[in-house]
Amino acid sequence: MPSRLQPVGILLLVLLGCGTHDNGSLRAPTNPSPSPGGVAAPQSLPPGGGSPAEAESPSGTSPVTAITEVLPCNDGEDACAEPPQEDTTTSVPTTAPQNPPLANPADAEAYGETEQTADCPGLDGPVPFAPLTKKPVCPPYQRPAVFFSPHPDDESLSMGGAIAEHVAAGRAVFVELLTHGDKSGILTVLGNGKSCDWHEGTHQYALSVEAFGMARVQEFLAATARLGVTGVVISDFGDQNLTPSEVESRISWWLRNGGEGLSLKGTAGGMDDQSKTGVPAHVDHTALAEALRRSGHNDLRLYLSYYAQSGLGTFDATIDLTAKGFCDEKRAALAEYGRWAPAAGRYAIGKHSMGTLLTAVSEACKEYIQKVATPAQ
To answer: Which of 107, 173, 187, 324 has the greatest number of beta carbons closer than 10 A?
Structure first.
């Protein structure tokens, strides 16, 4: 998701140069390696299988633990200091490549090549592709569950546990990314020359808007691979400018091509305040929720994004991922948004932007559902 700040907040973010950094170190696991079917096999996570009710915490593994240590880069503190004087001879480039490499070696092809309809005869528009291999995933789909994410990180923050649970149940699971989230104020932070105490080096990366958006997409691809999804679709309908009609174009694709057992999921709008002070729901989240409600589909759920931090919002059910055994998967996906590896095109944008929320969500390991009453058809 983009930086959830109003104009004054964005100005403050730029002046502080660190976004909302009051979290500890999100441990990004090593790059996943491709496995048959084009999804990652997380190195410390249990393999998929069984039903959600049967899922248990893995034994004999090294789980990605909750983030409990709070580093001294708190909200409201200028902890992203000016770079030290002795750092003047750094060899880090001052301008990042406009087309940085993707997160994994298997991602050598451009991520944007989603319109692979020639490989799925008879289909219109973009089709899903596997996040690691980039191979198209054509129908028929096995009881598909489609999770719509307004921005990179929303899928893991709001629905990461649910995604992992559906994968474990043997369903075909897809994530639709609707924007690149390229209007985040972190674009400015990455080039402000300052430093943060939770990563090495300084912010010396003057990315273009396009390259910044692609870097966010890289985080999304790595996170969805960690969750073991069947495929993703990447659109860019415009950060902070998403409309219900644009979302409906992708919902319609799934209603035409998804087949039996189709479930639709997405982030909640409306009653999902962004902060304890009552900052209203993000406009893109609201557009997505409205489109899903208007679809009239009979298998539909919406997930709150901010409750773990704000304590505000309206929901009908709380899902305890510790009890269900999907905390490790969710935390591994969240960790991808904290990976700082500029040489590989990874700038920990999610953590720079939403550090407080990442920490709260990782520690709570719960998800909050709005049950939707769809309009009568």
So the answer is: 173
Kindly report the backbone phi and psi dihedral angles of residue 358, in degrees, each rounded to the nearest multiple of 5, phi listed first. -55, -45
Average pLDDT over residues 16-44: 35
Tell me whether residue 23 is in a domain. no
Beta bridge partner(s), residue 195: 202
Token readout for 346 is 């990874």
Quote the CA–CA distance of 268 and 370 in Å, as a whole number: 7
Q: Is 45 inside a domain boundary?
A: no
Nearest to 328 by CA among 5, 147, 115, 59: 59
Domain annotation covers residue 44: no
Check if the beta carbon of residue 214 is closer than 8 Å to that of residue 100.
yes
CATH number, domain at 259?
3.40.50.10320
Range of the domain at 107: 101-371
Per the CB < 8 A criterion, the answer to whether 217 and 108 are in contact is: no
Distance, in Å, from the CA atom of 28 to the CA atom of 364, rounded to the nearest integer, reads 18
Average pLDDT over residues 114-129: 77
Confidence of residue 1 (pLDDT cuts 50, 70, 90): low
- Can you tell me the distance from the alpha carbon of 281 to that of 268, in angstroms, rounded to the nearest whole number? 8
Domain total of the chain: 1
What lies within 8 Å, CB to CB, of 73 at 6+ separation is 18, 21, 22, 79, 80, 196, 197, 198, 355
| CA atoms of 131 and 334, how far apart (whole Å) | 16
Nearest to 361 by CA among 305, 313, 292: 305
In 3D space, the residue among 174, 193, 207 whose CA is nearest the CA of residue 39 turns out to be 174
Sequence-distant (6+) residues with CB within 8 A of 85 are none
Q: Kindly state whether residue 92 falls inside one of the protein's structural domains.
A: no
- Is the pLDDT at 230 greater than 90? The verdict is yes
CA distances from 353 to 17, 149, 212, 334, 338 (A): 10, 17, 13, 13, 10
